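Need Magnesium transporter's 3D structure for a figure. Predict it.
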Amino acid sequence: MEGLPKQLSDVSVEIITLKEFHDKYRHLMEDNHFFDLSKPVKHTKIYYMSHYAYGALFLPKIQQRSEQSCYFYLDDAKFIIIEEHDWMKGLLNQIANEINNIELTKPIQVLLMIIEKMIYSQEKYLYEIEEKLDQQEESMLNNDGEYQPDLDHEFHKYGRDLLAFKRYYQQLSEFCDLLDEYFQEIVKPISRKKLQYLSLYAKRLKDDALDLREYVMQLREIYNADVSNKQNRTMQILTVVTTVFAPLTLLTGWYGMNFKHIPELEPPISYPILIMVVIGIVIFEVYMIKKKKWLN
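Structure prediction for Magnesium transporter:
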């Protein structure tokens, strides 16, 4: 196909549209209904028939990157990629620039390189999230529980991305296992070892994604606990202030009712005495608050 490097087209690797596949290769498959681009591809998967395999490759939407997907058909003689955009074409061009000294003899080798590229190319984003989480934890410690309105949303986004990573690597690991199981006859021993290694590596990255997701949940709980403690502290202070001024409010209301006869207000010394009573009440309340450790 035009646009594909020669070393790929020499082993019958081809990228075509769905219409071109139906027009040219409909006879290759017993059931062509699997290739339906009107339905979004959400999984990387492979199905094995007696003399061929078919499936889908999927890159999820993570960190502002759009979803990418394609279908494929594979047998011992050809590898056909079916897509409407240029995701796989760009990926194959990258691969071609990296395999100058590798001799390609079978189309399945190209599929292995695609899977390897899909695993390694996304690994850096996983560790970027880990670095951001470490920085966020340090920021939380330095802010001493200060409320950050966007932080809870950030944790939610990280958790969602890491769940997508977990599914992504789990599907790639299962894909490698199935490819190893069903294509033993046409996969060279060295390629089988690589398949097994890629499967284990994808499993490890899946576990890393799960560990990071657990880390996100822990940070989110710590952040929410800090915010809750600060809110409780504020409510505690307001409660103490209300408690301190409640008796004073009672006195103010009592002597502000404007009755004609309030005997204790007649002597000139009554006002200073009332002030002393108020001060005494406040001192007693402060003493009790400290004794009960309500502000600790």
